[in-house]
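Async update (no meeting this week)

Hi team, since we skipped the sync, here's where things stand on the single-chain job. The sequence we agreed to prioritize is pasted below, unchanged from the tracker. I ran it this morning and attached the output directly underneath so nobody has to dig for it. Comments welcome in thread, and please keep replies under the output.
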Amino acid sequence: MSVPKEMKITLTFDDGSQKEVTYRLSPLRSGDNPHQAGFVGEPGDSYTEVMEGRGMGFTNHLDLVAYSVAAEISKTMAFLKDERTEAVVVNKHTNPAVFAARARQVDALTAATAADPKSPFGGVMATSSKLTRETTDFLVQKNKKEKFVLDVLCAPGFEAGCAEMLSEVMKNLRMVDVSSLDTWEKINAGLFGCNMKWTIGGKPVITGVDNLSFFNTGYGMEVLSRRKPTDAEMKDAHIAWIGTKSIQSNSFAFVRDAVLLAQCGGQTNREDSARFAGERAAEFNVSLKGSAAATDSFIFDRQAIDLLHGIGVTTVVHSTRKLLTTGSLKPDEGIARAVDEFDMVMVRPYLIGADGQERAWRVFRHL
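Output:
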């Protein structure tokens, strides 16, 4: 193929107005696979590579969404008036493999990697704040003891000497500075507020960027169970909801004490996602007892509650069938009875529109 140098996109709106952007294209080390070409656009003010390592590939850029997850967790914890505002996320293949929030960045990384010692290897790590010397020292020691490496490290700035220290032990590491992305809108801007993918026949399929979160929209967390959540359980419900929002659709995220203990998504049913996540936790000897389990839409029947209870979950977060235009609430009655039978907590997140009316809140991630 001839090498493209520039891409121009114009959107024309129904009022006749237009928006246009031109991207200068630079070749990537590889596309989605080594036999595919890859390019990245440079529209101007965006993230910059501090250390190039062996060069960024297509999926490396996609996995920088880890920074969006870290920022969302951090902003949410601050909104909830929790001191654990330092978030660390490691993404693998566009899903968060591990994450945690703590008062200190290095403690967040320690807690995150303790839940899964395998998946973060070769991942894309993002921190919600400037990379600290403490965190750098931890990564250097982890490399020396375990040969641990990352593909990319992304942060809104680096304390003096950190980039150089890491490049000495992780020779291929790429480091990306996202300091210029200093607002939630810049992090999740998309193209004119839209995300685009291509389907068969060369047709673009467009959706609006999902930039709604707890800290920037009206929302409610309705407790549907007989037992009311503790403050800690409700905070974990918030973070688990962010987790499931960040994982490929049909997702389940298990969170306790602001740490992602296990996750799974991309399956053809949610029960498999929950089951596989539980098996992964068992492999790493991670207990899910007392965790909050969130899924991106609703749970179908009480068998799922039986499964979740069996692996130790005490808080279930899902949007239920309420406010659906089709379907029935009858299955949810059996789910609610099972939750109460096991003395669990069930929470329904929902949005509050500008008119004050409730709207269903589902967080499918298909892109």
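Quick observations from my side:
The CA atoms of residues 156 and 179 lie 4 Å apart.
The chain has a mean pLDDT of 94.
Reply here if anything looks off.
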